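Closing statement on the PBG sub-project.
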Amino acid sequence: MAFPITRNRRLRQSGALRALVRETHLSVDDFIYPLFVTHGTNVKEEIPSMPGVYHLSLDLLKQEIDAVVDSGVKAVLLFGVPDTKDAVGSSAYDANGIVQQATRAIKEWTPQLLVIADTCLCQFTDHGHCGMIHHDPRTGHAEVHNDSSLELLVKTAVSQAEAGADIIAPSNMMDGFVGAIREGLDDAGFENVPILSYSVKYASAFYGPFREAAHSTPQFGDRKTYQMDPANAREALREAEADIIEGADMLMVKPALAYLDVIRMLKEHFDLPVAAYNVSAEYSMVKAAAANGWIDERAVVLETLTGMKRAGADLIITYHALDAARWLRGEA
Ligand code: PBG
C-alpha cells in the first residue's frame, strides 16, 4: 500500500494550526459602510428589501454614526435621498443638499470618521439617469449626454469636497469623469482629496434594492449605454487604465460576487488599491435566506467577504459592515 507523502490535512488539524497558515484576513479596517441620508426629522425608515438598512434624517443620523464608531468601522459612504428632483439634478450640487448637510454634520461630530461621497446624479434627476438627457438630432432618441453630464458631476464633487468629504467616489460611468473631477477639485483647491473611482461598474440586476432604496430607477430605458456589459472582462482593464491615467487614487469593481475574476484582474494589472462593492441585492439575498433559516448568516457573510479579499479586494463596501465588525471581534 502506497501512502501519500503530501498530506495537506497536516496543517488543518487544529484551529491554531489553521490560523497559523491562514492566507487571508478580514479586518474592520477594510470596511466601508453605506448610509442613506434624507430630509425631514425623525425619519428612520427601513428599506423593505434591505432589512437593517434605513433612510435616516439628520437628527437620527448621529445615533447611527455613534454605532459606526463603536463598531470600529472607519469610513462611511453617503447616498442622498433628496426631496426635490429635476432634469439637471440640481440638488446633487446644492451647498445645502442632503449629502452636503450630512457630510458637514458627520465631520463636526466625528472628524476622524472618513466620509466618502458617492458622486452621481441618478438620485437627484427626475428621469433617474446618471447624467443629462439630450435628444439625438439624427434619431430623436433620448440619450445620456457625456460631456454636459461631466460639468454637473464636477460641480457635485466640488460641493461635496467643500462640505468636507474626505474622498470623492464618482459612480456615473461617463467617459472622462475622473479627469474632469480631478481638474475641478484641483482648481477649487482640493488637490489632496482622493478619488475612489467606480472604474468598473456593470449594468447589473444586483442594484435593484438600492434603486428602491434611493428612488433612482431610470424612468425610461436602462443604464446599458454607460454601465458595462456583464460579459466583458478585458474592457474592465481599459476602464481602469483610463481612470488611472486621469488621476484615480483607488479603483472599484461593482458588483462584487459575480465579478470576483474582475477584481483579481485589476489587482494583477495595477498597483492601486482595489475596492469591491458588495451591492444591495447581494445583501438582500443573504438576508432573505437567513430570515428563512436556510443559511447561517454570520458564516455566509464572513465567507463571502473573505472571498472578496482573497480575490484581491483591499477594501470592501458592504451593508454587512457593522455586523461583520462585531463578528470579527467574536461577538454574537
Ligand atoms: C448610483 C449608484 C448605484 C449604486 C451605487 N451608486 C445604482 C445604480 O447604478 O443604478 C448601487 C449600489 C447597490 O446596489 O448597493 N449610480
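The chain has one domain: 25-328. With this model delivered, the sub-project is considered complete and its resources will be redirected to Aim 3.
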